[in-house]
Amino acid sequence: MVCKDKFNSQFQNIQIILNPIKCVYSADYHAKDEVFIFSSGAFSKSSFIHEFIHHVIHPIIERRKEEILHCNIKDFRIDSSYYLDGGEYGKLNAFEEYMVRKFTDKFLTGDIPENLDVFFENELINIGIL
Predict the structure, then answer these.
(1) How far apart are the C-alpha atoms of 113 and 90, rounded to whole Å?
(2) CA 14 – CA 69 distance, rounded (Å)
(3) 48: closest CA among 94, 83, 2?
(4) Considering the entire predicted model, what is its pTM?
């Protein structure tokens, strides 16, 4: 409800699919129209929130794409697979994952930013991009 109220989430239907053959440490989501589908080998509140936050952060990444790509992006201490081939899409993908992790940490502690743009600006300053 917080994402819907504060960040204009379009989802009206949330489905959780627990799949016994899926790794419990790897969750995924699929979004279509007003439906959000979370899939994992086991339910974890933090994994669910992490996957759900992607749709909140992604539009900001898209809006600020050029700014992000022109910065010297540091190592975010995430798996190198997020960088894909190291091209533009890979850099944006890695940056999104980093921001989603930071936002998820805040969310889980109850320190939910009132404004995503302010959160984003603060994180850019914290990592030395601005």
Answers:
(1) 26
(2) 33
(3) 2
(4) 0.86
